[in-house]
Amino acid sequence: METRSARGAKDAGRLRDLKFATLEEAVVDARQLLESGYVRHGNWTLGQICWHLRTVQDPSIDGYPWFFSLFAFLRPIVRRTLMPKILRGDSPRGIRTASIFIPANELNDNEEVAAFAESVERFLQHQGTFHPHPGFGHLDLETLHRVHAAHAAHHLRFLRSAGEL
Q: N or C: which end of the chain has fewer CB within 10 A?
């Protein structure tokens, strides 16, 4: 029987070394995976990943649920310790996300890649203020963009183009 830690070490060699400078690069990557087909080395499909990315990204404009601010006092610590790791592409694996950000099992890859692309365009075109990130608090546009791009790279690295095998 393969243990979780053994499987994690084995899958680590299969994960792509992925870093996006912009969210547009994440959209290009998602579209390429959709076109080529892909192999999963994680729990989620391309559609599930794109749904998750969009669902985490959209509240930057629309606002997060009120209960996300309950632990706002921890933001300076999380910002100082976790954000540098995320921005350099060293996102920790296995951290559970809030249930509202967990995708359904049956999502359409085509629809979710298109919805993610629309969400990215909306984010990039937004002229107003952005809501505080639940973990990092208020961020300037450039840093928020980098956080979302790093988040996209973290998840999309679990998919490898079928053509790369």
A: N
C-alpha 46/C-alpha 54 separation (Å) is 12
Q: What is the pTM of this model?
A: 0.86
Whether residue 126 lies inside any domain: the answer is: yes
Q: How many domains does the chain have?
A: 1
The span from the CA of 3 to the CA of 152, in Å, is 27
Average pLDDT, the chain: 87
Higher pLDDT: 98 or 143? It is 143
Whether residue 63 lies inside any domain: the answer is: yes
Q: Cα angle at 25 between 59 and 39, to 5 degrees?
A: 95
Tell me what pLDDT residue 165 has.
57
Residue ranges making up the domain that contains 56: 18-164
